[in-house]
Amino acid sequence: MFYTLLAGLLVAFAAPLLFRWLGRYVVLPLALLPLCIFIYFCAQVSQVLGGTRIIASTSWVPELGINLDFYLDGLSLLFALLISFFGFLIMIYAYGYLEKHPLLGRFYMYLTLFMTAMLGVVTADNIFCLFLFWELTSISSYLLIGFNNDQIESRTSAWQALLVTGGGGLALMGGLILLSLASGHFTFSGMVLSSNISLATHPLYLPALLLILLGCFTKSAQFPFHFWLPNAMAAPTPVSAYLHSATMVKAGIFLLARLSPVLGGTETWMTILLVVGGTTAVVGALLALQQTDLKAILAYTTISALGLLVMMLGIGSVLAIEAMLVFLLAHALYKGTLFLVAGVVDHSTGTRQVNDLKGLGRSMMYTGIAATLAALSMAGVISFFGFIGKELLYEASLESEVFNWLTLGVNMLAGLTFVAVAILMSYRLFWSKTSKPTALQHQTSPYLYLPPLVLGLLGLVFGLMAGLLPAPVLEKAALSILPSQKVQFELAIWHGFTPVLGLSMLTLVLGYLLYRFLPALHSAAPRLKKVYRYGPDSMYHTGFKSFQKGAKVFINTLQNGYLRNYIIYIVLFFCGLMLFALWRDAPHVNLGARRELLDQIELHELVLFVLVIAALFYILNTRSRLTSIVVMGLVGYSAALFYILYGAPDVAATQLLIETLTVVIFVLLLHKLPAFWYLSHQFRKYKFIAISILFGSVMTYTLLLVQEFAVESELKEFYGNASFLEAHGRNVVNVILVDFRGLDTLGEITVLAVAAVGIFALLRLNPEKGGKP
Amino acid sequence: MELLMPFLVGTLFSVSLYFILHRHLFKLILGLILFGLATNLFLFVVGGITTGEVAIIPQEKETAEPPFPDPVPQALLLTAIVIGFGLQAYAIVLIRRVYQTLKSNNLDDLSKTDKT
Prior knowledge:
The structure holds 2 protein chains of 2 kinds. Chain A is mostly helical. Chain A contains 30 helices and 2 strands. Chain A has a two-stranded antiparallel ribbon with strand order 1-2. The model of chain A has no long low-confidence stretch (mean pLDDT 85). By secondary structure, chain B is mainly α. In chain B, helix 1 runs antiparallel to helix 2 (25-46) and helix 2 packs antiparallel against helix 3. Chain B is elongated, with a radius of gyration of 20 Å. Chain B starts with a helix and ends in a 14-residue tail after the last helix. Chain B contains 3 helices and no strands.
């Protein structure tokens, strides 16, 4: 299993290279890969059906519990088969769809990467492993939605999808970590095994549940995060069919199903899932009815279907899980088909607007047949797989312990919409009588109509042989969701005359009526635009824009290119931090206790002090550059005198030397430096004075405090003892510099050397003359 | 004097920061140099000041005998002064170059990287 994923990654990144070598025949190896993976998983079917779980494990960072653990049970197998088979068909379809696209290789890279990531998600056992692949699906989805990156619509939609699902992914990671803390396991299999110790009473249960749900809901486009999915239709149609109807949006459903033995069964779980799922189903259905763009219609019905799936997981009974799985498979088959059909229509006619498309059946017969097969399944007509799904949905709602009429109502509403959309997608587009059928721009290639035809036929085959083909795998999948229950699937087309059959028929009839009303709804739709202004999509855009604006304001305030402001922020922040620390931790300075120190001040010290202070005030007021340099030299020499007075002759010597040098350089360059000029405003001046005084006071206070609570260092003792005995030098300071910390001195010399090189460059080199002296 | 030094250092810091905040290039250099001085003195005072003694081991002894000043801050200071000089010299030359090239003594004119 590990090697399957590895192969996927390798082929993905090799795709652009293969494209360079093989041209458009790149499709051969790339379609072969999903086919091989599909065959590989098919080969595992018998084992999984026999009850063994296939486990593959490679340790990665075992100390943190991060391992590449994979396992294959019924649920994983169902998804893996779905993903690889769809992948195979989509690869072929994409070849027909983007035949002459110059970036076909890149497209295949993204698509294969996505497929691998998705396979990783459904087979992952370790939570970190799952998270890794989960994010990889988000990223590859971003790349695929933004594939037409020369269109602004694609770019914004890609951003939106990435931000929404990526944000959800972060929540998911938090939730998974909390869950592993609560359960003590890093693997799903471990969590499921130990779930008899009830997690529901654990204090971390609720936060973990909410975060994980947030992750799943964003991924599976549940209300109020549904808005990214219709926008994601900016992607090329193969992507919409693959990611945004059949696989990626079902990752959230998958994870909910995977975790339902661990987290499910509580009242919170049921309520949230039922409410969110129900709302999503209704909202999706209502919005779908107002759309006229083929892909938008399909996107909203997908949202609605996802809502139904979440609702079924919320009910969580055996029947509901059965309904969930059957409907999931049926939906993947028919919705995938319809998306592919929409792509073919778009490709051949150049439009996706329902109102411009009529009577295509004659010119695109095979596509029409595929669409009809899928539509019949979608509408839930008997003998199709969708019929079984719909029957089970109704049955599960009726048997639900809570809100059964409400869930049934939601199901009915969604069902009606599906019927109406199905009629629209097949009858209206292809077979309705018209004198002026829409003209084709070019003939459809078999690469385009074969994949949907295969999928559409599968919907019929699965329906007719429901008990034989899909049932065993679905049963195993249900067993992984409900490990402690006895699950027995008996899928059949004919249940006899039951109330549920009546409901199915009623749905069909009402759905047809709804279809008749569609034109009225379409014309009413623009009037609802005002409502959408407060919808989540526009809220997202407002939020996104204000975030960008806020960031710009923030940056412009903090990093506005004015040196002075940078320094003010640094100084103020430093003062704030310092004052906070002083206020919180430090004792108060007690100057009164040290008053007698004032008596020890000698006259020469006082004179020096007054001299420096006077010099500083003089320098503030002088307008002459020369005077200020001289006065500054005075301050420097005074500092040297202080060093001499307090036992630091070496420092004093250095200070004298350096001060002299500085003054010399200054004077030498004086005539080349700008003359004095008062540039600052009066108001600013006061602000500067206030900040400067604040800074000076903080430093003074700190110094006073440090003096009062002086710390005796052991280093002093050490150097005092060791400098002659070990380093044979009597001047302790010098010994430290050249011996004990010799390397530091080397560093210091290096700094000087670098400064010298810089100075040379500044003085001698001239960029206008090409860097020559 | 121990008591007066903090005030001296504080005043030095205030004046130097005031100069740095100015728009004038020349004042910026003055501010930088004074700031370096203030920092050095700050370090020196933090290390504790003792009068009259030096950190040199007399000829007849093998170890330094207390009271002697802490040699560590002094060693640090020496390094700081020299590096500070490198910085100052570089700043002076850089500012001269900026003035020469851009003919401006106003820092606010330098808020963009592009030529105007």
